[in-house]
User: Fold this.
Amino acid sequence: MKLRYRFLIYVSFFSLVFCLIAFAIIDLSLKKYTRHHDIIHVPSLVGLSMSSVKDTLIKYDLTFSIIDSAAYNPQYNRGSIISHTPKFGAQVKPGRKIYLTLNPLTIHYTLLPNLNNKSLRHGISLLESHAFRVGDLHYVDYFAKDLIRFLKVDDEIVTESDSLPKFTIIDLYVGNGNEKYVKIPNLTGLKFSQIKRKLNNYSLNIGLSNFDTDIIDTLNSVVYKQDPLFKEQAPLGTYVSVWLKDSID
Assistant:
């Protein structure tokens, strides 16, 4: 009787151990199959071209599908990504499909406004209200400072009689008022999207933009270094280079 009782105990014990081992093996296999512990944080794709998106998603072991084209956003290049789902920072598993919304490629034309002898600030306002983009400022000898003398697109002079694609980048040639130099403003802490307007207001241009490698949002990155430095004197139209990172410590 005791022998049979011990036998039943052993059988029960080894059956329990077998079940636990079997469960562990099955659980481990399922987790390995589904890559349970492989979690990926979705990278920011906003502003990237499709070729850059493909390279980025391959690196992260993710796939993509284009679902829509939105209203044109002049802050981004044509055909670039303006939003995606899941959003930046979301946790997903390898192989997850990311759904992309593109900046449309369709181009609409509009007449260039008359900017001849308009002030720089007025001219910039007119261009932006007509869906054009301000390019570089070039200073020419003229007694009135920051008075627009003529406009160029790709080194070709354009006038108010020209019909141009919306969001065309237009370079402005303005009077120097017989001045040669300007003091460099402080750009530290400004967002990337704010730099150009401030520099233009000081008769300057934006030069090279150097982004730290870990930046995740280009438009909202901020300046922590500039060249030339704050309060230095530089010729009108100087290109000011900036270094940017995600935030100021």
Observations:
- Residues 109-175 form a domain with the Trypsin Inhibitor V; Chain A fold (CATH 3.30.10.20).
- The CA atoms of residues 67 and 100 lie 6 Å apart.
- DSSP finds four helices and 16 strands in the chain.
- Helices lie at 2-34, 50-59, 120-129, 192-201.
